[in-house]
Amino acid sequence: MNTPLSHRTVLDCSILLPGPFTGKLLADLGAQVIKIENPNRPDPAKIKYPEHYEVLNKKKEIIQLDIKKEKEKFNSLLKSSHGLIEGYRFETAKKLGLDEKSLLKINPTLCIASIKGYTKSERPGHDLNFIGQSGLFSRLKTPPGVPLSQWIGSTQTALQLVAAMDQAEHSQRGIHLSISLTETIKNYLLPEFEISKKTPQNHGTTLLTGRYPCYRVYQTQDHREITVAAIEPHYWEIFCKVINRPDFIKFQTVIDKERDQIVNEIQRILMSKQWKEWAPLFEANPCCVELVLNDSEVLSGF
Asked: Which residue, of 66, 163, 180, 253, has the greatest Cβ tally within 10 A?
């Protein structure tokens, strides 16, 4: 089967989540991803989070290899690879021979993706630290429950690595990418922060934080949460008709006390039926209303 990256070979020399997830994304697109694991020091995720390890690495070829002691074997793999993923501190990478100078000496056209927590510091950190430093936590207020910075950072790393491998193929010169998880999140948020200078983004003051009745999370009688995102006037009109309150059409963007009154009334109406009763009504009248799924429902393809 011809897949977008079937012509690429990438060495995954990383551990835990960001690097292996980057490798997974590339493998999903057909790249031959070879995960290098030290037989004496396996990936900690394999021991602590075996289910996560399996998901991240099931499409990869896993080779047990001590990079420091089996240089010849590693160099042979390196020479035939287009990319390499690593996430070590600089001194550790240098000791392992995974620094830019050592790698490009062996394969001058190699593209190296080095994933870091911060841009100018090698201090240790994890997802909560990164989203805190990026400014995202100030919007969330509570831990997101999923490793956002690492997912987003890994996706950005995969994108940059694909582009770098294409460029290197034409230029015949290797490229070293240094991707900061904190900086990646920050770059996504900067446009919002610029807007914040003019309009404070406190909860309830913008469309995306619940300023209007048309963009909120409500509950049904069986305590299932549903997302209502009827931003377009025609969808809001349909929504109001489904809940039998066409008189609410004119209140799509009301704010403050008037908004609270409308929101409370919509909540009261939605609480009058279980989701299984509302579902066919919204299916027959699409208006950007969806059920909030839990983990098991997502896995079962609900």
From this structure: 180
Position 269 pLDDT exceeds 90: yes
How far apart, in whole angstroms, are the C-alpha atoms of residue 233 and residue 82? 50
Distance CA(122)–CA(91), nearest Å, equals: 10
What is the DSSP secondary structure assignment for residue 76, as one 8-state letter?
H
User: Which phi and psi (to 5°) does residue 44 adopt?
Assistant: -55, -30
**Domain residue spans of the chain:** 9-191, 207-299
3-class DSSP state for residue 219?
strand
Nearest-angstrom CA–CA distance, 36 and 67: 8
| pLDDT, tens only, 76-119 | 999 999 999 999 999 999 999 999 999 999 999 999 999 999 99
207-299: CATH, from 3.40.1390.30, 3.40.50.40, 3.40.47.10, 3.30.1540.10: 3.30.1540.10
Rounded to the nearest 10 degrees, the angle between the axes of helix 18-28 and helix 50-57 is 40
CA distance 56 to 43: 12
What tens digit of pLDDT does each residue of 10-19 get?
999 999 999 9
The residue written with tokens 């490009």 in the block is: 104
C-alpha pair distances (Å), 283 with each of 71, 205, 277, 296: 60, 30, 11, 22
CATH architecture of 9-191: 3-Layer(aba) Sandwich (3.40)
